[in-house]
């Protein structure tokens, strides 16, 4: 209601104006003849009403209004007090019919005080508010008195002079406005007391309302009784006093009872609170002690585990270290860490760079870190620590970094040593020419050295580790290997130097002497096996070769034996036959006839042929037994051969052409090479066509690793199906009466060529001629 | 042929061979006395008997049963020098084996090497080389 006091005041003042202008008495005095609201009063109410309008708007306008109120009321008060006529009462309205237009002294003073207070409130000091409150209370009391006067119908002459002519609506409005003004600063003075929320204020409010009501009521009743003549004024005062006392006692009792009740509740509440507090305290104690235990435990753990904490407050730049952190960095316990200085603890180089990067990443990208690096402690010890850290962000800015340090020096050094040892071991294993591997119980490789890696064909160790033999080797080999592994696991007996082989996918077979040794843990349980294989492929091949050579050697010996037998034992009876035939012809020439002589001659021919064959066979068998390669001029050899064959050549009118002037110098066995040429040229002469003059061409070409030679003729040629057979020993294509020979020549030639790592082959057309090619590959 | 060898000893198990050789030697006419033994043992026995005539020339077969040519040479080295006398030993063999040839050459008592059967020309060559006073072209 008080909120609208100013609006109410404005409305009433306007109505009073209207009353004055339209000369409506009721509006001027509300029916009380004694006092009317003057025009000036109405103006003042209007202005104060405006000034007290709620809100802080138009402050200057309000101040002007207050100022006008002060001037008007001040001047009126001066007129009233000093009985001078300034003419303020005639300022707006001429109130000649009624008593003077001057506002009553009480009204004037009240307005002046009200205006002054409103000015006072503008001064920003506490005392102005307090003082203002009391002044406003005074105004309220004056207004209240005036109202009481009207209620009790006290004639204006018998009331206090300065309020005698205050109109009823003036009094009411003044009361309302003063109270309203009080509410501008309700926390001060009496208003403050009444409007507070505490128990005292509540009680005061109640008492105030009751007392006002009781006092006014008792006052009115007493007054009425006096007026009615039931009691005199003096006894009226007594009655008033007694009634008031009663009323007050009742009010006090009521309030006291209420207070007692409240106190009871309060006490109970207090007790409850105490109890709750006690419980709470217990709980807090319990929790505190458990927390303390946890903290102790944590501290102890950290101390034992050498874990220290740290925190960097990036807002104020402070750094916090726990005692363990300080002990890790070997700084005194009173050391105050500092961010820049602390960076110096990280070992220059890798460690410091890693730390800087971790912090930068945390600040820039919010990354956590968990790294192991080296520090140099305050005492100069280099040690490994593990640092964990994480940033805390607020409003997109990193405000805090915190985490832990752990002294991991022993572990790290042990790790590094193990790593070194492992590396060393790996290096050793990688550089021995033996396959080494370790397999687990599922026959999966857990370690391989370089040789073993090479065998698997993989480039990278990691491609092999974790794989079993079935994934690495052909099925057959893998099955055998797995079987062996299982046997080792089952019996616990190692396999030592067993000859094994693996046939790889490219059909290459690798031979090994493999050992598989079970690996046991501390509990003597087998956990896998160590495999050591020596690759003996080369040795194996060499052995095979040697075996072949031994066979050859043996065969060669047999051959020698055979040749010996052939040359000696076979030859002897043959020669006996031959010689006795001779003796027969010599000693019995006169006794035997011509026919007998012819027969003996045939026998002699056979014997001679056989002798030749035996000789050739002996030559053949003895080939390649001496020997050292020598640089031989083929030209020289050919010259010799042609000279040796001179008789045959001229007899057969053969023509021998060397296709090139110079023949090369080759590394060869001289006698044998000569024999080869001799055989081939002899054959060329021997197997000639009758109608054709013999032409023999000898040629040569350079080939990879040596030389190729050829001997061509224009003879009878060789059917293609015989190309291979002609090189077999004792193989003859012709009857003896057609072409004589032992049938050993080409076999001998081939053997010679083979001793020179070469090959002998033939190209031929029947009836046209043959070309024998051979290579000498001794470079 | 004015001068002749005192005695030629043939050591060969092959009688047929001996017959032919004896015939060849007699035909060439380098001695009037050709003694024949059938093996090394008999040859040694012959030599060890001082009553036997010392051979100027021995034709020794390599291949013989019991004591062969090589064995004989070993035993021959052991017997008294006086019993050996001034003899030239020629190995007779059908073997054309150069190994045998080498082996024969390296033996101090072997002065020659002739393939079986002994032809008159081969015999003449041996005489020319070892007994130039007996045989000249």
The overall strand count of chain B is 5
Helix content of chain B: 40-55%
Which sheet architecture does the biggest sheet of chain B show? 5 strands, parallel
Average predicted local confidence, pLDDT of chain B: 82
What proportion of the residues of chain B form beta strands (DSSP E)? Answer: 15-25%
Q: Report the strand count of chain A.
A: 17
Q: What spatial form of chain B do the alpha-carbon principal axes imply? A: globular
Rg of chain A (C-alpha, Å): 72 Å
Strand order of the largest sheet of chain B: 2-1-3-4-5
Low-confidence region ranges of chain A: 93-100
Q: How far apart are the first and last residues' alpha carbons of chain A, in Å?
A: 134 Å
Oligomer: heterodimer
Uncertain runs of chain B are: none
Number of alpha- plus pi-helical segments of chain B: 6
**C-alpha geometry of chain A:** rod-shaped
Radius of gyration of chain B: 14 Å
In terms of DSSP E residues, the strand content of chain A is 15-25%
SS-based class of chain A: alpha+beta
Our count of helices of chain A gives 23
Helix content bin of chain A: 40-55%
Description:
The complex is a heterodimer of chains A (779) and B (137). Chain A is 55% helix and 16% strand. By secondary structure, chain A is α+β, with helices and mostly antiparallel strands. In chain A, the strands form four sheets. Chain A has a five-stranded antiparallel sheet. Chain A has a five-stranded antiparallel sheet with strand order 7-6-10-9-8, with helices on both faces. Chain A has a five-stranded mixed sheet with strand order 12-14-15-17-16. The longest helix of chain A has 73 residues, at 233-305. Chain A is rod-shaped, with a radius of gyration of 72 Å. Chain A starts with a helix and ends with a strand. Chain B has a five-stranded parallel sheet, sandwiched between helices. Chain B starts with 7 loop residues before the first strand and ends in a 7-residue tail after the last helix. The longest helix of chain B has 14 residues, at 15-28. In chain B, 42% of the residues lie in helices and 18% in strands. Chain B is globular and about 35 Å long. Chain B has helices at residues 15-28, 40-48, 69-78, 81-84, 98-106, 120-130; strands at 8-11, 34-37, 57-61, 88-93, 110-115. Chains A and B meet through helix 18 of A and helix 1 of B.
